[in-house]
Fold these 4 entries.
Entry 1:
Amino acid sequence: MKFLINSLLEIQNKHGYLPKDEMERISVEFNVPISRIYSIATFYNAFSLKPVGKHVIHVCKGTACVMGGSGVFEDTLKQLGILDDEDFTYQPIRCFGACSLAPVVVIDGKVYGKMTVSRLKKMVPKLFEDKDKTSKGDEDAR
Amino acid sequence: MRIRIRHQKGMKMLDKLKEKGIDELYGDRIAVGTSTCGVAAGALEVLEVLALDDTKNVVEVGCLGFCSAEPLVYVQEDGKAALVYRNVKKTEKIEEAEILGWFYPWEFSPLKLEHPELEGYRECPRLIEHPFYRKQVKIVLRNCGIIEPLSINQYVAMGGYCALQKVLEKKPEDVVEEVKKSGLRGRGGAGFPTGLKWEIARKNEGEKYVICNADEGDPGAYMDRSVLEGDPFSVIEGMTIGAYAIGAELGFVYVRNEYPLAVKRIEKVIEIAKKYGFLGKNIMNTDFSFDIHVVRGAGAFVCGEETALIASIEGYIGEPRIRPPYPAEKGLWGKPTVINNVETWANISPIILNGWKFFASLGTEKSKGTKVFSLVGKVKNSGLIEVPMGISLREVVEEIGMAENVKAVQTGGPTGGCVPKNLMDVAVDYEELTKLGSIMGSGGMVVLDNATCMVDVAKYFLEFSKIESCGKCVPCRLGLAEMVDIIERITKGEGSLNDLEELERLADVVANTSLCGFGKTAPNPLLTTLRYFKEEYEEHIKGVCLAGICRALVRYRIVEDKCTGCGLCKLNCPADAIEEVDEVYKIDDKKCIKCGSCFNVCKFEAVERW
């Protein structure tokens, strides 16, 4: 049994967004108008029509995290220049279900609990320096 | 007669699995809790270090619930009970970590289980005497953190699939009756009697479906995630029993995409259950067949509403539909559909095994059994707890959570309400919480302390609801947006007393004219804060936020005499607004965003709020 949302999520996970030709392909496969695919793509938070950056940063905006002070992380990321950088995608997320570790930040899929501004300020630039180095290394090796 | 003989083969298989499971469960092992919460606390690194010693049997289990003590590791060796270590670090030897207590692996389960005798520890406390566990009664969480989530042997050793076996010998209508008598009500929030829902679906003819609602979108609630990660078999066993009772052959688990581990686990256990004949064709060698598919949610809060969820499975945007007809009459693809949430399904097999009387003996007159809550926020002990219905909020927050300086408890997720401290003696019960203007919801419980601004809390939830409104009903779509505008004005000190009346009027319209449960309850956070904390709104209108949260109403400065020059404030300033001048620090008012980070981190009270 195939489900429209599952198929779209697979495309989203593969490309980081929903490319137009893939949406057209799904429209044919499921025999539904492209307008409905578009309505789904814009209704659900998981889908994006634009490619995401190399690094994805999620800040949890769940109740426990916000009460624990996750609101200032957006300001911190702004200060670090991440919000204006094409290589980065910043997405606030509603809740990761790790509320006892609030406030939570997820960077490239890894969950960091009990986050503080100073830790974020130290961590983010360093993490990306290392990552960019290794990804460059991979390219060189090829 | 024929079914009986074939069925006995199934019994033999259960015995075999049980035997293996008992060996695995009570043999020597070191268990690390690696649910999402454990992983975030560093459990995988601890696991990696422990696994280096290949003479030890190191296994991964779900969450024991006590999230603030994670990573949790327990050691079970030489015929002794399990000894739990808390906050284990990868750099230290396990024996050097702090001991939380010891427990028998079977003692949390309400079921009668076969087990060998294990020796306890005299020198350290029992886990069940710890304040966090003392008042808990586990039914839903009976196996969480105890069994390896993907081990069918261990699940059966903890009484798994015995309920299904028992059910297959009964008439489906008797199963419905049993659930009905137990008094179980939907744990997703609305509290509709589960047995009644089943009965309606059973009476309808033709193809039918069962759905597990695992689209746990409430921020601050994660019990469904924990059950799916820690004891996924219990959910699919419950669904299989439900399918047999109503006469369905197909089921769906609709699970949030934000819970990747839960998705993986549920997909895996469906595969395993099929291999052992607990799912698929001719379940346990009977004529009953049932299959389950997993559908992932795509991050829309409103899809937790049952008709929106159904629309989403069908491949539409998640807009709720008009009820009646209820899904039990006309649901997925227009067919009778029973839709229950994860916690409800996990309750089914203990009810069948121990009988309805066992379940009905727990709780209050109208709310039976237990409820799982995620106790988070300003508490010392945070985590997942399962308590009998009827326990007071105060016991939960102050005795289990050991919270101090409580101002209010927010229950029921973003569309729930805030119960103030002086009303915390209220019993946890669907009707009692509704009377106070809150709801049971799916079980999020966020404790707010005196440093919280209640207007800001209301603003947060209204903003959430504004964004998550699907937009179908005008009052919900526009009303909530208007309410956010007004409350924003108030938090900037630009509100008037008329605004409060306008907010109440809008809340009334949204609640009474929206189609689904979301719109009907979305004004709750506003209404309860207005009801119990009106003076805070009035203070804001005068331009004062006593808690110092609302940025437009506060300013910060550093008192030179008190500043020791440690620089912690500068490190924690998100806006780079703090400069060092002559060995003390100063805030640049132009850059300051008034977030209060410096105020919160300063150990010398050198930062002043005014």
Entry 2:
Amino acid sequence: MSLPTPSGGSASEGRAISRGDVAHLAKLARLAVTEDELDLFAGQLDVILQSVATVGEVAADDIPPTSHAVPLTNVFREDVVRPCLTQEQALSGAPAAEDGRFRVPRILGEEQ
Amino acid sequence: MSSDLTRFTAAELAAKIQAGDGEVHAFLHVAAEKAREVARGVDADVAAGREPASPLAGVPLALKDVVTTEGIPTTAGSRMLEHWVPPYDATVTARLYQAGIPILGKTNMDEFAMGSSTENSAYGPTHNPWALDRIPGGSGGGSAAALAAFQAPLAIGTDTGGSIRQPGSVTGTVGVKPTYGGVSRYGLVAFSSSLDQAGPCARTVLDAALLHEVIAGHDRMDSTSIDAPVPPVVEAARQGLSGDLSGVRVGIVREFSGEGYETGVTASFEAAVKQLTVLGAEVVEVSCPHFGYALPAYYLIAPSECSSNLARFDAMRYGLRVQLPGAGAEEVMSATREAGFGAEVKRRIMIGTYALSSGYYDAYYGQAQKVRTLIKRDFDAAFAGVDVLVSPTTPTTAFKIGERVGNPMSMYLADLCTVPASLAGVPAMSVPSGLSADDGLPVGLQIMAPALQDHRMYRVAAAYESARDAADGGPLINRIPELEAVKA
């Protein structure tokens, strides 16, 4: 099958993934990848994506998708208070905590 | 039960692991103190003449480090969770304690259960006790190696695309992936939620069945947990040990043979099939035409779910946070994920991000989901004519450490035969089928059954195991070369 050309990337012929595409994906996935990793991953992701794209060979236009092996229905329970983690337990793994709350780096930019 | 019971106490095993895990490196943490506490509780029950909490009370176990344990570190093989001590027990952990099973420690694994060799662990690889320069399989290589090295008679693994079965196959041990939803996922560090399933690992089929019954069953804390009786796996394993398989119809998956399968693996599989026939099973060949597309579908679906699940590692609430004075949350998040995740996890997150992105969704993730439907239909059609399906568990025996790390696609091929059952949610297991004539390393026979018919495969596996052991003069695991750690 012919691979779709990634948007925003200058994919050279026959390649699914360029270095620029990897940089874009890494940004979306919040991974501050290094320059060396861009080179490494561009080659590897290209091989992987070309290979998995073979799912496109299957004629499946009229086939419904399966997201789950077991048919799922919504599961309800009574809205009652049950034992749960204490505040101390919930914060026990926090990188930083203050006054019983998670302490996080600033969320807004300088200009905001 | 295993003869370990008479040879080691839980406390002695814990001390032995602490002293001599260096060669194999099956464990990331040894929880000796807690294990002794649980063992003492069982001793007290016995001394007081009380009924033991379960048939496995006092039998120690190695727990994959992806299952949360209150007060005991849980790293999932990642730097991201290096110092994390969970504030709660997984349902699997709680059920083990309720059954009086001492947890010796947490076993090594590929980071976040992504891999087929345990080389993706941030804490160094585990070595196969059969040949220390070989991989023990993955992602649950630590659990399987702990069994093969006689460090523990029982272990728990998790299987997303083969992470219980493939390590079982290459270490000459038994590994079972129950029906999806058969064992609660509450407290499993999530990789691919529609596929992840915890299951028992042991040295014999009956031990695996006994452990299966301890951990299985409905759990209201997991909305995908099946609200149905646990399949009668222990009864089936005992029935199988009688060695009679008359009336059982076995299907050989035609698509899982030929090119890419080692000669020794194929020979071992054919001998196993012949043995099943001798035991009275009716063996036929069946075709599952879409199984050839299971691997690419799996390597789109699992990374897609992984890219979503691993978004939780945001450096805010738990786990690693890289300190960048003055930096904003998003910058800290990106730097932390870069530092905390290894190469394979990053690759899968990016593959998943790609497959789910607008413009590619239909061609990749959407198409993979349709293929998943066709694979389910292949299983349905096959199971209309046979009771169980069989194949080799893996196309090759244990490969050398380092051999495939540079080539992710060749690593993925280790999961060729195990991913269809994962995608369809049906139960599947690996049972040792002997040593390969090529290299003297263990080969596994995979047995698959319809959803909630887990007992069918236990019956076939137990019958096969007893016949193979009888023909071979004892269990395969007895032929493992002596390790320094075992001799000590």
Entry 3:
Amino acid sequence: MDNKPDRQSKTTRLPRKRFYRARAHSNPLSDSHFPVPVSPSQFEYSLHYPHFYPSEETNETDVGISSAAKTQPKIQFADVGCGFGGLLVSLSTLFPDTLMIGMEIRDKVSEYVKERILALRVANPGQYQNISVVRTNSMKYIPNYFEKAQLLKMFFLFPDPHFKEKNHRRRVISMHLLDEYAYTLQVGGTIYTITDVEELGIWMKSCLEEHPLFEAVPREELEVDPVVKLLTSATEEGQKVARNGGQTYQAVYRRIAAPLVENGRVSPPVN
Amino acid sequence: MDEVSVDEGESNSSIEVAPALIAVHPLEESVAVATGAELRVFSLKGDQPINLQDDSEGPSHSEAIRAISFGAKGRFFASAGDDKLVKVWAVDSWHCIRTVCSEKRVSAVAVSHDGRWLTFADKFGIVWAADLSVVRDSDMPVNRKPIPILAHYCSIITSLEFSPSGQYIVSADRDFKIRVTVFPRNPSNGAHEIQSFCLGHTDFVSCLAFVKTEEDPLGFLLSGSGDSTVRMWDFPSGCLLCTCDVGEKAELGELIGEEDHPAVTDLCASPDGSIVAVAIQSFCGIVLLTCDLSTKSIAVAKVIYFKKSFIPTCLGMSCSAERLWTVTGASNFPSSTTLPLACVKVIDGLQNCYLDSNGAGPVELENDSIPGGEKLLTKLQGSVSAAKEEKALSEAAEAVKTAMRNLLIKKQYSAEKRDFRKRSRNDKKLKQ
């Protein structure tokens, strides 16, 4: 870090965005060449969360890892398409004991978030240890990072709208991808989506509405959920929309249990 | 890193090469071979070649068939491929009862055990289901169009199978993934509940098979992959039970040339897993494995070497698993002059593969001792003598290998080459 001081602000030591210019979009359909864990058990927790996974323990014995890992926390929040990481940083202090990960496909942006988190950890000892970032294509590799029913919350904030109909399959919320998100979310887990594009807002809401494993979170619950406020206030995109006085469209849904089908009859879900 | 092995030329024509396929009826009543757009069927029960009849008023196959499969315990047979047609045949009469049009090329096909649902996967990773039930009364119109039920995100699906109980549908893709999805009683609203992902392969997954015993009627899943391994899974949990590095264990080192990790191209298993036949890229022969379901382990039982340059492109076996049917060949490969090529070989006495070298092990059958004899070969190969075209066979095998690599292995480009490719992108917005 010290050998490139020009990339950081002199006062806060935080990385400066102007040095991490990136394209606004990335094609999620193309073959990716970044490393991806073969399975969730091979995700390197000690690298991402050294405070929660001290390296001495993992170095002791190779056999010890698996038994130790069971008692250690797993990632419970995922910010898919985390951008410059505004939400992660806000959530970090709100839920200091919950591990969270940002997933970003643009490597320069994920690089920025990485530096930002490291700088925050240095500036605020003991804090921001629960957040990290990976460069990945979440549309292809969500199951490589999270086990079944591992996540409590997933965030899809201001995703790429992909207006053209032929590009709708690149949208990060779709009926088929919701199957995978439902798989990684535990029953009762929440999916948060927000956009400033009306057309995409309607699309995301209708996908979630139609999906049998999700139901809308009632308005009363949204009002008391501290996370909902962050959707607009914490992210860089949200702040931009607010500055321009734009409207946002949000859809917050809960993962519900699959209806049990027996003898062709649908019985109520059992938790 | 791996820049040395970069595929330099990206010839689209090589992708069109289609391997010859074989499928054996579960009770060995018939054998089907597909090569190019041609479907050839021989009835072993009736000891005669079959003339296929099409009652479905749909078009016939016009391009390479990519997937064939017996389904519904041998009542139906499905064929599908590059012409975006999926045809379902009633096996008792070998009439085509249904032709379903897909939007995209089809890469895998399976019929549910009850015979009610045809499922197929297209090259964009979407699995579709079509209702095969006959319309009985007019007040219950059956939706004739296929419905998309699940999707692997823009990844080619290489194999599609129903679990032995019919409870799950399992799909494998080129992104190293195997997805186990609950198959709903009525899939017309989609199959949204993912039971598990079987993750562990480090290259494309090429083939799937199920094995089960009376104690474990739910069964276990076997998968073969470009990473040269066959793996056994407890598929409802996605738990990896055993990995067998076939290329290494069978000591094929010198036999397959320079390749370190030859891909597993196909596998088929006896229902109890005691015999698992594996075809390997560039290997003139078959590796027989055996699964011990009590200890959850896989071991190499025997390696069978073929005399001629015969690299199987596809394997087939009936439920009794006495004989292994193999085929090699291809269509549309550069030097193919006239007809698509297919050459059939049969291995008998699989049950004897545990005997020591003195005992009568599995044997390669001569033309006249193959069930159906020369009549069968004439039908399935196009001629009795196809086996003699050794040069063409090895060329076909080479073409299939290149095509499979281009299709399933991610391309690695050096940094400069990547920049060069970006410059020639045609989807860039033109700046005014």
Entry 4:
Amino acid sequence: MPKHWISLLLLIALTVLFLVFWESPPALLTGAKETSKPEFPAAYMINSHSQHFDKTGHLDYEIKAAKVVHYQATPGRQQDSDHADITSPEITLHTQGRKPWHLRAKTGRSNSDGSQIILTDDVQGWQEDDDGQRNELNTDELVIHTKRNYVETDKAVIINNSGHVIKAIGLEADLNKETLRLKQRVRGVHEFEQ
Amino acid sequence: LPEDARQPIYVDADQAEVDKNKGITIYEGNVIINQGSMKILADKVTIFNQAKKVSRIVAKGKKGQAQYQQQPDAEKDLVIAKADTIEYLVGKETLHLLDNAYLLQDGATMKGHRIDYDVRASMATATGQGNKGDNKPNSRIQVVIPAKQLNREKQ
């Protein structure tokens, strides 16, 4: 077969290959599972109050909200991209043997299985001690891991711990163990024993 | 200053950890504490709360020693102290300087293994390390009183 026939065939093959790659969706190439983004709400609730229990039947957490709009990409099948947008969320995290923590904000978003709720816009948290004193937390954004009673933010935060006020950038708090870690630029003001 | 002890305690640091159960707050990284004219500089400071009020402060140096300074009175010079660990009992206004302790007060200096300083009475007590008659370093205390002050005491 003369040489120029071979090079012609080669050229045609390359062109076809190029066109195939050009047209095929990225997922074919990258192997990534394509998840379509939910565009329309699957359901919504007005003035809702939901209670969530752990495996042993203990009340884990509660959510009250003025409005919850639930988005589901494929009705009937849960996907990672599913979520719920919450207006005026009020969350109560119950920690066994201790007073509950109350958290509220203007807006919030829950992931598909409710294991993570992100509160945004004027986030306030408080817990009342046995002697009536309050521990408070204020920030612009707070990620709540509901299954672990663990909250965190990388935003500016103010903690008022029975009269000791501490400001910082970034926080991680284990509400079960009642320990907090403040990540950067910490400023504390402490009252003292008279 | 006399009114220092009634002032709130201000703390600046890189990070902090609060353990509500134990009633402690641990500050770490370039820690600066101010209470009126009193100032403490350290790498790590633990604040102990009792009945939710600060009762004790323990400051430790890592890269260097923990440092303390305070103005006892408007007319007096700054009192300056250094040690590997400085413990400040807030209510009793007492300072314990532990390990490689140094105190400068009215021009006189004192060195020893441990120095206890009563802030209110401006009184310091130094102790060496080990038994009597030891000649190990740090086992004895050193006090240096400047001549000027000696002459003044003689008159």
